[in-house]
């Protein structure tokens, strides 16, 4: 005691001397001192501070202080320095409520703690310590911190930095201070981006100015893009799982077909025999009574009854045979039911494996996102060199001898994932360089690098799935392994059998103890995972017997090993167990998913590969069905009347019938059944019933067998107060909650219920759903209901409504959405990251519900959305994985921004129409059949919509959600390409997912088709849209006139109603209106001012009469053929010699080509730049009556040989200088010819035009003598010659324009009528 007082006295004196204060005057002057400093002197303990009650600043530098003490008497302390001391923890600050600045750098602190009382703290420097982790919520009370320095610590993960995001006042952050060594996390990629996204309020980062808004926006933009990218990747992984599930389910159905058919046949025969047995027993009893009365048993009864009685008379052992056959049938049923269970077991096993693999990939993707790409996972394939090396490595270290006792002959590698962890690799390399740089190290380090295996020991692990955490955080420390009961080192091996033996032994022990789930696979440890790590073994020594594996026992070793020597194995010398003392010398590089292969004869069926379970199925079932007695088939009852009922029931009066068996008929109605007031047992199996309304209000009915029907619902069932047994097997019931609600209300005494083999929605939850509502049940699905099970189901049912307790447990009051690299919704994220704000032990303040901003009620088995009307400030809500069938109760939640309703039973979205602030809506896995445009129109801020896995058949209505950025509508039933046009109004849409719709497989070139019509897309179906795809889409679909485009322009898709089609100036370059029969009523098409070079698909329209293609670029009727190879000299010679006949098979003469468009009568081709009429192949239009070619560059009239029906030809404003000898060959019926505004100097070769009546030759260079000579043979009624070389007198004898069947485009005749007026 004297010694401690002396030390305290010396400490007090030291403080006084260091600050120039007289120790003797401390009682008088101590209360006035506000600042103390002690530098580099002997002050090992914090004593004497009670002498300075008004102390505001305390600085201790270079002392040997290990703990903070004595500050209880310094309540006014505002600035505290303990620097370059030996401080090991943060403590003793609980009374320093006024503290604003705390400097604890250059110490030995390993943990941030005990700061919760420092609510006014603004500056915290902890640089150059040993801090590796930031505990969750540890700094949340210190929201006033503005300056934080953590440089020179051992923080390696971005997850730690994320925990600083709640410090909203933080302005200066140091992790890479120039005066300190950089924190390892600073060396990772995208470090600054990560920090700026999570802490947007920062002004300085590592002494750099980051206050620019441009930097913050760039960081946020980068993160948002990455989150969108990984959201697509996760959805792709989930989609792959869905495909695997669908394949497994399909294979399962195929395998179930045989046993189900057998079970159906056996059940049918069984019920027939039971019916026959009841009749036999009844007749025997009646026969006995009849003989006693002295009457003949054959004297009464119908034919069927007499036949049965006759059979009994002939075969007294009939009843025994029936009973024997019944027993055999039941045995066969048990056999096939076991097969059903086996198939279900295999299905569940394969499904669990697929789900586990998918969950692992999703976990890895999220890890990539959270680490901003500093951890990556690469799934290998056989073409990757590293994959082959790793594959061969594992096979070389597998020894079948080690597994001989288990019947294992080989190993199958399902997949190998390469791990790229930048943080762990830097740590490994730094450690390796440190060892190599030491004076003692002279070894060749590559010699001591080895690849070793690790498999998690399920009995000795602190994590649920250790194999998922090792790629992220690396292996545990040696002390952690020791705490788990293992050796004090990282356990590894170069042998698969050695490293996997703990898992195998644990699985076998669990199976022997009966604690593991029953499995049909005898090899419970068949599937496994191992990690292949690069290991620096360094100085390695064998383990000494009697010494534990501990670094203290091997001071100069980096690792130790133990050889394993199984008997009889040649490779035993190569099998070793290794223990590495420093985890930083172990770098995980590969994760391998494998399974053991058993010997032939013990192979395990796999539904994934559709391996049949039934090879040569037994024929015992058929033999059983053919056993004696063979029953005669009974006539089917198609309807019921009183006579039929009496005959079937063997009764005289309807009111006497208590048992009625209508099994095996084709009944769908029971109209007369209500008159059977005494009926107690009813069998209607193997019929055609879809509902059970007809058996309502039967007060005495106790038993109903309605198996093997087509029941869709129990709605309508009423008044069965005594019903205690109901068989509903093998029907089509889907909604367990609704059906049990009917039974609870109208069959309150039900004791036994069988619901098996129905396509229930969420079959895994059916049992608990039924038991929670039918509390009277004693047996469900032929299984006894235990008290514990019934109690748990009732309790679960009671929690299906939103209560105050559930609101308190799952709500949060945060005002801002958490900034986190997570794909969870805001409600889910806050539920995980933010602590509950409620004190459930005390009374709640009034209006507490108005403070709720986030609510996460996922997987609560909710059936309705209730008690939400007071959550007026709710912003983020999630109700995934419930049984909600209707969106309701959200009308008062006007501030709701995010709403998630995935995996429910919702069929309409009416309940969200008032949520005008909603930005994200997710309704995946429901029963939506359409997208209501009126609802979407009321959500102007909706940016994100996900409706995957529904029953949506059209995109009609989605165009009303004009603000959409992301639309996920995969796995629906969209089939029409026209639906893509509904998306064209969404100008902001950048991400679209249509995968899994029939449209994707149906539409050729689907991807570029969508990209063409939605040019703003950045990603489609989880794959980024490349620039080359955009260019390819323009090449393929640019200017393409399709039925979808017609529907878009016209606003409907009733193509048969289209008579006139007018699409001027629509940038059309190709016509593809297939199938052409859709437009069989179309008569007129106007495609002026487009980019057509040919008639394209117009030639296939069957009934077109008028076609207007003015102002295009028409070169020919059909598209130009590809350029042919150059002709040889011989071919050129043959072409020059006409008599050779060579090469003339490709002649372009119209007479030799197949006619086209037989219904076309009027054709407009003005202003197309046509220079060669022959190339047009107009002769193929054999029914053409009017042809308009004005405004082109034609110099020679030709190619009209096949137009024998032509009546009107317009060639105005061309470059025709003269008419050729064959220009009008074959136009004997031409009535009207227009050649105005050409370059004609003479008028020759008009002799074939014998019927020509109207000739227009204005604005040429004709002369009178030549004209008189040329026109002397013509019988003209109208001739126009104005504007030629000499003035002419034009006589207008008669002007009757030919044909009024022209399309709605201007015709040259109208202009000529104006000229006629001038002439008059």
UniProtKB/TrEMBL annotation:
<dbReference type="InterPro" id="IPR001611">
    <property type="entry name" value="Leu-rich_rpt"/>
</dbReference>
<dbReference type="InterPro" id="IPR050836">
    <property type="entry name" value="SDS22/Internalin_LRR"/>
</dbReference>
<dbReference type="InterPro" id="IPR032675">
    <property type="entry name" value="LRR_dom_sf"/>
</dbReference>
<keyword id="KW-0433">Leucine-rich repeat</keyword>
<dbReference type="InterPro" id="IPR003591">
    <property type="entry name" value="Leu-rich_rpt_typical-subtyp"/>
</dbReference>
<dbReference type="InterPro" id="IPR025875">
    <property type="entry name" value="Leu-rich_rpt_4"/>
</dbReference>
<dbReference type="Pfam" id="PF13855">
    <property type="entry name" value="LRR_8"/>
</dbReference>
<dbReference type="Pfam" id="PF12799">
    <property type="entry name" value="LRR_4"/>
</dbReference>
<keyword id="KW-0677">Repeat</keyword>
<feature type="coiled-coil region">
    <location>
        <begin position="234"/>
        <end position="290"/>
    </location>
</feature>
<keyword id="KW-0175">Coiled coil</keyword>
<protein>
    <submittedName>
        <fullName>Leucine rich repeat containing 9</fullName>
    </submittedName>
</protein>
């Amino acid at each position: 005691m004297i010694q401690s007082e002396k030390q305290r006295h010396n400490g007090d004196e030291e403080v006084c001397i260091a600050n120039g204060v007289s120790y003797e005057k401390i009682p008088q002057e101590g209360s006035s001192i506000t600042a103390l400093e002690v530098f580099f002197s002997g002050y090992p303990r914090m004593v004497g501070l009670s002498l300075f009650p008004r102390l505001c600043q305390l600085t201790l530098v270079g002392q040997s202080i290990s703990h903070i003490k004595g500050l209880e008497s310094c309540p006014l302390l505002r600035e505290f320095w303990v620097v370059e001391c030996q401080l090991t923890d943060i403590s003793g600050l609980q009374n320093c409520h006024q503290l604003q600045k705390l400097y604890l750098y250059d110490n030995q602190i390993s943990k941030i703690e005990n700061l919760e009382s420092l609510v006014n703290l603004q500056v915290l420097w902890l640089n150059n310590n040993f801090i590796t982790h930031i505990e969750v919520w540890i700094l949340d009370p210190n929201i006033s911190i503005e300056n934080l320095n953590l440089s020179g610590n051992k923080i390696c993960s971005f997850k730690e930095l994320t925990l600083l995001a709640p410090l909203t006042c933080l302005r200066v952050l140091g992790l890479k201070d120039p005066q300190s060594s950089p924190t390892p996390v600073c060396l990772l990629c995208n470090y600054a981006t990560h920090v700026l996204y999570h802490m947007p309020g920062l002004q300085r980062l590592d002494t750099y100015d980051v206050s620019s808004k441009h930097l913050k926006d760039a960081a946020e933009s980068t993160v948002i893009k990455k989150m969108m990218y990984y959201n697509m990747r996760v959805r792709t992984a989930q989609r792959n799982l869905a495909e695997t599930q669908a394949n497994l389910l399909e294979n399962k159905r195929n395998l179930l077909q045989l046993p189900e058919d057998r079970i159906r046949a056996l059940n049918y025969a069984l019920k027939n025999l039971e019916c026959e047995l009841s009749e036999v027993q009844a007749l025997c009893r009646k026969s006995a009574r009849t003989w006693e009365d002295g009457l003949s048993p054959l004297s009464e009864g119908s034919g069927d009854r007499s036949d049965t009685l006759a059979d009994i008379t002939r075969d007294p052992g009939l009843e025994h045979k029936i009973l024997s056959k019944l027993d055999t049938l039941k045995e066969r049923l048990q056999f096939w039911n076991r097969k059903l269970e086996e198939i279900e077991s295999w299905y569940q096993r394969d499904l669990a494996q697929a789900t586990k693999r998918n969950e692992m990939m999703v976990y890895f993707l999220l890890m990539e996102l959270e680490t901003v790409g500093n951890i990556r996972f690469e799934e290998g394939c056989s073409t990757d060199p590293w994959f082959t090396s790793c594959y061969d490595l594992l096979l070389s270290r597998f020894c079948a001898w080690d597994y001989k006792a288990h019947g294992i002959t080989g190993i199958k590698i399902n997949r190998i994932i390469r791990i790229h962890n930048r943080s762990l690799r830097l740590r490994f390399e730094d450690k390796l360089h440190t060892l190599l740089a030491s004076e003692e190290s002279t070894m060749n380090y590559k010699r001591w690098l080895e690849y070793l295996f690790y498999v998690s020991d399920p009995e000795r692990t602190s994590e649920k799935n250790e194999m998922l955490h090792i790629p992220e955080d690396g292996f545990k420390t040696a002390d952690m392994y020791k705490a788990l009961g293992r050796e004090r080192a990282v356990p590894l091996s170069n042998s698969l059998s050695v490293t996997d033996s703990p898992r195998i032994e644990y699985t076998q022990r669990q199976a022997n103890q009966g604690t593991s789930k029953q499995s049909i696979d005898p090899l419970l440890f068949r599937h496994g995972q191992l990690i292949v790590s690069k290991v620096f073994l360094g100085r390695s020594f064998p383990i000494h017997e009697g010494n534990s594996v501990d670094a203290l026992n091997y001071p100069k070793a980096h690792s130790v090993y133990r050889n394993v020597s199984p008997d009889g194995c040649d490779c035993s010398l190569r099998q070793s167990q290794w223990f590495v003392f420093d985890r930083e010398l172990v770098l995980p590089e590969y994760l391998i998913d494998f399974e053991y292969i058993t010997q032939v004869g013990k192979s395990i069926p796999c539904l994934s590969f559709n391996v049949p379970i039934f090879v040569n199925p037994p024929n015992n079932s058929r033999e059983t069905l053919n056993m004696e007695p063979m029953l005669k088939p009974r006539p089917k009852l198609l309807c019921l009347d009183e006579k039929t009922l009496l005959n079937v029931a063997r009764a005289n009066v309807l009111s006497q019938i208590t048992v009625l068996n209508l099994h095996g008929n084709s009944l769908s109605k029971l109209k007369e059944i209500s008159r059977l007031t005494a009926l107690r047992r009813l069998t209607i199996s193997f019929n055609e019933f879809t509902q059970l309304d007809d058996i309502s209000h039967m007060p005495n009915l106790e038993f109903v067998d309605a198996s093997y029907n087509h029941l869709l619902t129990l709605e309508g069932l009423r008044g069965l107060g005594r019903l205690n047994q109901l068989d509903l097997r093998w029907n089509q019931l889907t909604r367990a909650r609704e059906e049990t609600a009917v039974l609870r209300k109208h069959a309150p005494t039900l004791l036994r219920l069988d619901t098996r083999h129905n396509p229930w929605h969420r079959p895994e939850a059916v049992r608990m759903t039924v038991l929670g509502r039918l509390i009277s049940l004693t047996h469900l699905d032929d299984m006894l209901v235990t008290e514990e099970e019934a109690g748990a189901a009732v309790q679960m049912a009671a929690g299906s409504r939103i209560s105050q307790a559930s609101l308190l447990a799952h709500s949060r009051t945060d005002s801002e959405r958490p900034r986190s690299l997570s794909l969870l919704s805001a409600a889910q994220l806050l539920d995980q990251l933010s602590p509950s704000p409620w004190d459930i032990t005390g009374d709640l303040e009034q209006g507490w519900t108005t403070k709720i901003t986030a609510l996460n009620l996922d997987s609560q088995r909710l059936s309705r959305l209730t008690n939400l009307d007071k959550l007026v400030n709710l912003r983020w809500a999630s109700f995934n994985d419930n049984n909600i069938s209707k969106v309701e109760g959200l009308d008062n939640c006007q501030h709701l921004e995010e709403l998630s309703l995935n995996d429910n039973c919702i069929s309409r979205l009416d309940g969200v129409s008032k949520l005008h602030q909603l930005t994200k809506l997710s309704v995946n896995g429901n029963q939506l059949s359409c997208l209501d445009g009126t609802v979407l129109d009321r959500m102007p801020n909706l940016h994100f919509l996900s409706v995957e896995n529904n029953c949506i058949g059209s995109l009609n209505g989605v165009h009303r959600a004009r603000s959409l950025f992301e639309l996920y509508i995969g796995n629906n039933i969209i089939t029409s390409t026209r639906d893509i046009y509904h998306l064209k109004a969404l100008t902001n849409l950048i991400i679209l997912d249509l995968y899994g719709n029939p449209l994707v497989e149906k539409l050729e070139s689907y991807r570029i088709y969508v990209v063409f019509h939605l040019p703003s897309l950045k990603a489609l179906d989880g794959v980024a849209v490349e620039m080359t795809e955009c260019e390819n889409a323009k090449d393929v679909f640019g200017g393409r006139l399709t039925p979808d485009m017609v529907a878009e322009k016209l606003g409907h898709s009733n193509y048969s109603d289209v008579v006139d089609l007018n699409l001027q100036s629509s940038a059309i370059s190709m016509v593809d209106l297939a199938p052409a029969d859709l437009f069989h009523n179309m008569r007129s098409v106007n495609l002026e001012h487009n980019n057509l070079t040919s008639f394209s698909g117009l030639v296939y329209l069957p009934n077109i009469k008028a076609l207007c293609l003015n102002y295009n670029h028409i070169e020919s009727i059909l598209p130009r053929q590809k350029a042919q190879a150059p002709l040889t000299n011989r071919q050129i010679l043959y072409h020059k010699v006409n008599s050779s006949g060579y090469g003339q098979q490709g002649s372009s003469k119209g007479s030799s080509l197949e006619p086209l468009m037989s219904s076309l009568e009027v054709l407009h081709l003005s202003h197309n730049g046509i220079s060669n009429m022959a190339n047009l192949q107009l002769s193929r239009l054999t029914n053409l009556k009017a042809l308009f070619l004005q405004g082109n560059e034609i110099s020679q009239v030709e190619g009209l040989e096949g137009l024998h029906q032509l009546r009107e030809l317009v060639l105005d404003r061309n470059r025709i200088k003269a008419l050729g000898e064959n220009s009008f060959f074959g136009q004997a019926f031409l009535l009207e010819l227009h050649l105005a505004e050409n370059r004609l100097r003479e008028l020759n070769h008009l002799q074939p035009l014998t019927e020509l009546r109207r000739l227009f030759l204005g604005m040429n260079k004709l002369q009178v003598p030549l004209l008189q000579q040329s026109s002397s043979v013509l019988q003209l009624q109208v001739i126009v010659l104005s504007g030629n070389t000499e003035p002419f007198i034009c006589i207008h004898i008669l002007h009757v324009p030919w044909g009024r069947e022209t399309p709605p485009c201007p015709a040259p005749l109208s202009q000529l009528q104006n000229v006629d007026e001038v002439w008059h």
